[in-house]
Amino acid sequence: MVPEHIGFIMDGNGRWAKARLLPRTAGHLAGLKALKRVILACIDEGVRYVTLYCFSTENWKRPADEVNYLMGLFSEKIMGEKPFYDANGVRLLTLGDVGVLPADARDSLLEAVEATKGNDRILVQLAINYGGQDEICTAVNRALAEGIGTITPEVIRAHFDNPFIPPVDLIVRSAGEKRLSNFLLFDSAYAELVFCDRLWPDWGKDEVRSAIAEYESRDRRFGGLKK
Ligand code: FPP
């Protein structure tokens, strides 16, 4: 069965650029183009939810020019893709604390969320200033602030940014590293993991198809026994 929700760790932009003697930022721009190919491929496959790891709570440690470039992509490129979202039924949401981003990046993300809220073919969560540990702590603190005294997995999930989005079924990471890097820690409890050596800017339909094929070959038991 096709996964309902796929999370992508879009790694390898820097290496892709380095291999071409280009600045790392050129890799991020190429990564943005790959991201559109991947969204189209997910639509073709019938995937309903996609979460893209665009900027982690730890990415602030990168050199200022790289951080600024990524913030510039969020402020300048997101709304420019409105025809793409509308033509393909893409609804955008953010995941993570975008409130502390530079105002133009934050405003453009919020504008894109508002502008795409009528689209319903695929929901794309942009994880920006997102960290899985931070997500869990934020949810717990929201529950405590409401006076909820007993924290359960259901309570935590109900206090996520977008609690109506189902848990991720498949997490895919490009560029060879085999770790989660603080991505979707809570919801990855029973997610399938697929790692692929290809660098993110080289991703497209074939890589999405092969990740889904690997997912479909797995036997998901969620801690139970094989049916
Ligand atoms: C990781 O590769 C990639 C990122 C930290 C940024 C991902 C962002 C995008 C693809 C652009 C998203 C833009 C919008 C507008 C949604 P890396 O830099 O760690 O690569 P490396 O491991 O080869 O150095």
From TrEMBL:
Cofactors that this protein relies on: Mg(2+)
Keyword Transferase in record: yes
Residues annotated for substrate binding in this entry: 12-16, 24, 28, 56-58, 60, 62, 173, 179-181
Active-site residues annotated for this sequence: 11, 59 (proton acceptor)
InterPro entries registered for this protein in UniProt: UPP_synth-like, UPP_synth-like_sf
Keywords from the named record: Magnesium, Metal-binding, Transferase
Cofactor: binding comment: Binds 2 magnesium ions per subunit.
Signal peptide: none
Magnesium keyword on record: yes
Subunit structure: Homodimer.
UniProt binding sites for Mg(2+): 11, 192
Biological process according to GO: polyprenol biosynthetic process
UniProt protein name: Isoprenyl transferase
Top-rank taxon: Bacteria
E.C. designation(s): 2.5.1.-
